[in-house]
Amino acid sequence: MELRKFSIPEIIFGRGSLRYVGRCARRIGAEKVFLVSDPGLEQAGWVDRLTETLEEEKLRWVYFNDVVSNPRDLQIEKGAAVYRRERADVVIALGGGSPMDAAKGIAVVASNGGQIRDYEGANRIQRPLPPMVFIPSTAGSGSDITQFAIITDVRRKVKMSIISRTLVPNISIIDPLVLQTKTRKLIIAAAIDAMSHAIESYVSNIASPFTELLSLQAIGLIVKHLHTAVETRSLDSLEQLSSASTVAGMAFSNAGLGADHALAHSLGGMFDTLHGLVHPVLLPAVMRFNLPECIEKMADIGRVLLGRRLGSSEATALGGIEKFEEFCESLEVGVHLKEIVRDKSELPNLCKMAVNDACLLTNPRKATCEDLLQICEGAW
Amino acid sequence: MKSKPTLDDLIGVEHSKLGYYRELQQKVAEVEISNLELARRQRQIQAILDGITDVMMVLSLNLKIVSVNHVFQDVFRVPEPEGKFCHEVFRSAPQPCSSCPVITSRESNRVCRHLAIYPVDGQNRHFEITASPLRNPDGKPCLILLLMRDVTLEKELQAKYYQSQRMATIGVLAAGVAHEINNPLTAISGFAEGLKRRLPRIEKTIDQELMDDFSEYLGIILKECQRCQEIVQSLLTFGRQTCPESSPVNLNNLVNDTLKLLQNQLKQYRKDLIQVELDESLPPVQGNESQLKQVVLDLLFNALDATQEKGAIILRTSSGNGDWVSFSIEDTGYGIPSEHMDRLFEPFFTTKPVGKGVGIGLSTCYNIVDQHGGEIQVESEEGKGSTFIVKLPRENRNGSLQSNPNPGS
Ligand SMILES: [Fe+2]
Description:
A: about 375 residues, 6-stranded parallel β-sheet, 3-stranded mixed β-sheet, B: Beta-Lactamase, Heat Shock Protein 90, 5-stranded antiparallel β-sheet, elongated, disordered C terminus, binds fe (ii) ion
């Protein structure tokens, strides 16, 4: 096997772990914290709970909440200006993928200067970032674990991938209690995103023994607990989803993703789609496209999804894909691309953009623009 | 266009989460270097400060001593002056002095100079004080730097210089006057002599009573002329830079000879009035014996005049350290009022009643000692007595007068 690398943040996991935020920030040298969150979490009272822990440690902070779903380059640069003006020293993000990615972007621009688009691509960050403590409010994006930040370039309508080991936060504090206040739609979207991370990282061409177990673990947990979590909101099942999202994040941060995420990023950039709702539409088609290159691995996924093996590996793999489709339908989410992209003529542009996405590098089967178009047609 | 990421980029074996460790190390190294540099400069500045020979102190704005240099300790020997008020340390006063250069400097934010006299080891010493404000970045004084230079020696030298200047001027003046008087005086005395010689020729033609008056008057004229001529003679020596014959003189012998000379006059005094303490190992001085004898005589007469019946006069000789041999005469007389000290050696300055002296003695002494390259000092306290000290340079091997400012001119 070729060289592989595995890196993750310090992780504090468990109910009530939010109260450690202040102490963690203090320990990594904070005096004035730059706190990123969003209005929804403010209303739910989580921002206050977090700042109480800062107060306990006598830390000052500056609060930044000008973040939207699919965070934008201008917001990043504005946040970085605030960070520098306020002479903050540690970045804390509380939220889903968007506030966390925004916080990463702000950390990059604040310490390295320039504009966020200067760092698009892999390993372009030259100087250390401020220490980061992230608290995910959804069980999905995995941004609190990964080396990725996805920021929208508004002018080009492109989701930029910024990839660097330096983007791995210092500390991830995962408190399942925070999930309780999320809507049904958000919980489902996040969980399916985590599922797609697990599936794509498992078949990735740089998957390793360190990531494969984690991927399968995440798939199993989500298929087992998502329904209960949505229906009962029981803390036990929400905790399982948090766990699944975290291990999926550990897997895909180190193994990468695939064609599904390449297309999902392009859809997000062009149509501002909610990221989690793209996968029920595209992932089955991508899995079918990839199947010839990784029948055994697809069969592993099928076995976990189905809970058993069918006659052959191919049958198990296909059974798994069908099971995934059924699973999504049972959650009452849209499964057709036409529900997201109203006009079919947009598809070639979409695929032209996706074929350049870094996620396609780790897709197990080489995919051309034409291939991607076929996949989209299949998902229409 | 940026190069597209590769699989190796995603794996990123060579890329790690960047930390501040290396920067920290660099910073630490830089700080160490600049610390060394700072310490070096600190030592350099300290060396410069230590090289300053003036008393240096830093005062807070409320006149408390913040720090002092080593010269302060050498001069004032006040243990741990830091934290004390300057007026406590220098004057033992609870309040700031009335004209305080520190306060002036603090209020005006300018350098202030000042002369002051402080007692040091029981002696009053003159200090030239410079107070300069040390300003904080916005230009306001935050501390006051005080430099104190002991100018006692300069003051003394200056006083001596003025004294000798004045003496020289007066000397020229006196000699000029004496010269002018000398000619008419010679004429008066010459013609009086002529009259005296011719007096017998008219003896038979006038009556005896008138003859006796003429004879007596002429005698008085001639006697007073004689007195005037003596005064004129001694005045003339001021103007002349004479180089009298000089030879090694033993001051002990000089004192003994003088006392022998006065044996008859001294009989009227108590026997133990004059005491003599002579340094047996006294080296000789180079000088003119008869001139020096005159100095001893003049000083002794002054002492006798000043001393009451039950007082005492001590004649001393000593060879102090250095190149000086000294003779002193101490009396327990009525002393010299301080306002007279400055004019003591001026010609015609006298406190004696009219007819008792014309005030030439001390100025002559001054002149003689000065021509010998020596000094006369006076210490006196009114009502308690005076001490006159004559310091003369020790004889050196080639036999000429030492440190004579005008040898033989
Ligand atoms: Fe995702």
